[in-house]
Amino acid sequence: MMRRLAQLSSLIAQPRRGATSGGVAVQFAFLIMPLAVLTFGLVDYNRATSEKRRLQDALDAATLAAARSTAVTNPELQAIGSQNLTTNLSAATDATLLSSSFTLDSPKVVGTARAKITPIVANLWMNGDMTVSVTSEVVRSMNKIEVAMVLDTTGSMAGTKLTNLKTAATNFVDTLAAAAARSTEVNPVKIGIVPFSSAVRIGSSTSEINAYKSAAWMDKGTAPIGADIFNGLTGVNRFTLLTQMGQTWGGCVESRAMPYDVQETAPNVNVPASLYTPFFWPDESDNDNYAINDYLSDGSYTSQGTTGGVSTDYRRRQGFKGKYTKAPSGSGLGPNRGCDMQSLVRLTTDWTSLKTKINSFNAVGETHIPLGLAWGWNVLSPTGPFSDGVSYSTPKTTKIIVLMTDGENTYTTTNSSNDSNYDGYSFIWANRMGSTSGNSSARTTAIDNRLPLLCTNMKNAGIVIYTVRVEVKTGSSALLQGCATKPEFFYDVQSASNLNAVFSAIAGSIENLRISK
Question: Residue 35: how many CB atoms within 10 A of its CB?
Fold first, then answer.
């Protein structure tokens, strides 16, 4: 090109026939070279400007895609952003991508890119490329989350299943804790844990026991369900009986009376049925050969509170209030029998305490899913009894339940005069969940019927529910499927060894909920 420009200027410089002077031609010859350079330089400038604009558009789209993803680490963001950037630049012909970077500067995702453009003019006299650099930032709108893990710790979880659950739940906490650490929000993640079996234990430390005993929402003898095991006698304060016996309340609570058992209605002293009743397994009759918790002498009486004479009604003998004045006898027996599961953890950002609780899980009791799920709701609730959760109307906050169980609801029949053991639903004859049947199938159905009501009420309140069924080889999964917020939020795990992968997937899904689109 330089030779052609030189030849052209030489021709122009030769005097033309009839010309009166060659001065103009000579001057033009000297000007054509810089004019040509300037012309082609403008072309290069326009090409660079155009390619920078194209690169900026491509980077903006790639950074937006990375920000909208569930990625929470720089390598994850880099993989998503660079793939999108390459695709977005696939039609570019004049620019070659040199480098790109996608990083999290919470709450922003920052993208940068450099590309080279081979110039037309500069390459005529030097070996150099033009480079263009662009930057893009996308602010992620981050939700805060409150999570309650409602975990089955019944007897059937013993062994490998419980070990796998501990690993999966611990890693779940670690994943969300790491996400919280990357956020600029104050307390962006809070987690609570509710281990459950045939009852729920809300406290175990001395401070918890004392606080909950004196709480206004704890029944002191006015709740209608509190009288059933004391032959209908009202006003029986179970804490008073425990004190008379030299016993400390174990921290377990029983189901509220229907319909409060599936509602969030805040406990109110003016509505006794809405209160929570402390767990108290009564002394079973001395005369009942199938009793498993006979720890006091029945004494003798003819009617409630009156001594003299002997009743042959086993249930009346166990419900005689007057005998609960001395310490129970027999190892492992007493009013707290059946309250030996781990206690729950209220919403917290203390990840160490959560993992310590998980590691201490023990497998005991039967499966009463509605009891555990109801307390999962209580952990998240802004009303009561704890009132730890933020209001449902709080902007950019999502409340989440992760429910895991390894079995169907159960309520075992026994040969005792009570037809069952005592648990969070009292004895079966107390009709706490809509059945007094001695038939195991009817009992399971009665508990099952409470679960959809509870799940529906929770979802109507805006709570997102994940459900996990582990190694259940019989029965239908419809109950837990229906409880989940979406079909894909239900996991049917055929091997407990896959629990960790499932909990990791749920943690990732929760992270997706935390990032606004």
Answer: 11
* Opening angle at CA 349, ends 348 and 353, nearest 5: 75
Q: How far apart, in whole angstroms, are the C-alpha atoms of residue 194 and residue 459?
A: 18
| Residue whose entry in the numeric block shows the structure tokens 């009013």 | 335
Region of 84 on the Ramachandran plot (φ > 0 left; ψ -120 to 50 alpha; else beta): alpha
Whole-structure pTM value = 0.78
Distance of CA 286 to the CA centre of its chain: 47
Give the position of tokens 């837990």.
Answer: 480
- Residue identified by tokens 């906050």 is 397
The residue type at 286: D
What are the pLDDT digits (tens) for 437-484?
A: 878 889 999 999 999 999 999 999 999 999 999 988 776 689 999 999
Among 87-96, 275-284, 489-498, the range scoring the smallest mean pLDDT is: 87-96
Q: CA 503, CA 463: separation in Å to the nearest integer?
A: 18
Tokens for 71?
Answer: 């990625």
Q: Which of 444, 447, 412, 453 is nearest to 433 (CA)?
A: 447
Instruction: Give the C-alpha distances (Å, rounded to integers) separating 401 from 146, 223, 422, 450.
Output: 9, 29, 28, 17
